[in-house]
Specification:
alpha+beta, Alpha-Beta Plaits, eight-stranded antiparallel barrel, 6 helices
Amino acid sequence: MKTMKNITMVMVACLINVTIFAQEEPASVEKLVIHIDQVKPSMTSEYKTIAKELRDLLSQNAIADFSYSALTNDRNEFIMVSPVESMAELDKNPFGSLVAKIGEDKFQSLMDKMDATYNSHKTFIMNYHVDKSYLPDIPEDELYREWFFMNVDPADSKKLMAINNEWNALYVKHDLKFGYRFFSGGFGSDESTFVVMSWGKDASDFNAKMMERNELFGDEGSALWQKTLDIINNMDRTTGYSLPELSYIPPAGLVSED
């Protein structure tokens, strides 16, 4: 049961970190627990079957105190993103309510099967900056994702934040109808790493949006891009898809049975 133990240990450690800095965190920043499984290519289908079984167990047992969105990328990583609404949530096993319903043995068996499908895994915290994102609500039919990673010197983190504000202003100025979400590293990850996540219906739709954006931004956008590059130590891009069929979002108003 390595996967869930790892999540729990990181969440407990993060509780200490969040408690120390709670007074400094603005309300517009949401903390997310990110768990990534590096799945063996030959086991991808088996992994998806087990992940769906887990999702179905949560749904069948009306688990209301835990949710996650599932995604995958072109590195064959499968990603589970869970919101953290309060510090109290960081001090408990996220699957505790499910284990109480189905029993430790059944849950252990499922996790053992999942453990056999991946080579490595990791869990960490990311900060989602709602106020530094643009039109962050993602249409349900737009499942394609691009993640753009930027790493800067710690001393330049505030500069990168300020540059993102300039990008945001350009989006507003040109009244673009598509947006992005802006993230920064948290506990367990590099805090001087920043991520911009964008989306579309598919790769073709996404690329068309980026071409439209670049044409509208023109020289102003080119200058801002160079300003961005001037403080970035390294950057990376990966693409993938949201997996609603493997995600678990309990219905609004659902209350777990005792």
